[in-house]
Amino acid sequence: MLRPLPLLRSISLLATLAGFAGAQAEQRTFTLDPAQSKIEFSLGATMHTVHGSFHLKRGSIQFDDATGAASGELVVDAVSGESGNNGRDKDMHQKVLESAKYSEIVFTPQHIKGAVTADGKSQVDVDGQFTLHGHSRPMTLTIQLQLQGGAGSADTTFPVIYKEWGVKNPSTFLLHVSDRAEISVHAVGKLQGAKP
Description:
The chain is an alpha+beta fold. 17% of the residues lie in helices and 54% in strands. The chain has helices at residues 4-25, 86-96; strands spanning 27-32, 38-45, 48-64, 70-82, 104-113, 120-132, 135-148, 151-161, 180-193. Strands 1, 2, 3, 4, 5, 6, 7, 8 and 9 form a nine-stranded antiparallel sheet that branches. β7 (135-148) and β8 form a beta hairpin. The longest helix is centred in the N-terminal third of the chain and has 22 residues, at 4-25. The two termini are 40 Å apart. 18% of the residues are buried.
């Protein structure tokens, strides 16, 4: 026959383990496929709009459905930036992004607001730190998710205002450009982990 105290300890231990298992079941990971993901930018300039792209190096977001806590990173290859004009791209890398020195652009998620549906559409706000040109600032991304069976896409758009990141405005005497670039992300990946 079990004594009352050991029995209470056993019940308490089982309850703790059950709670831990439940918390673990809330953890999920969205892993991005760099080969299928696209990062594009547009920049208003005199008489026309400049369009270009960057390559995603790697990316994954781990998040807890119960608490909203998030971690991971989305890493963009700054050196890969191109707009289809060699002279303009040379200036972008040497004078604006200084990509030889600051070779990565990184978003580090910290918290997710909203529910991620494994099948269908959902929208979440992801708070985190955005690092560009050696400067880190808080940023919230509103992300549209389209998932089916755990696989699918995540889309977001956001502006990058040059002066907020210590980046030189690429305007010249003959060419005036906007004070910001509009960034569009289409990320393809897989969601793994238990459904909430």
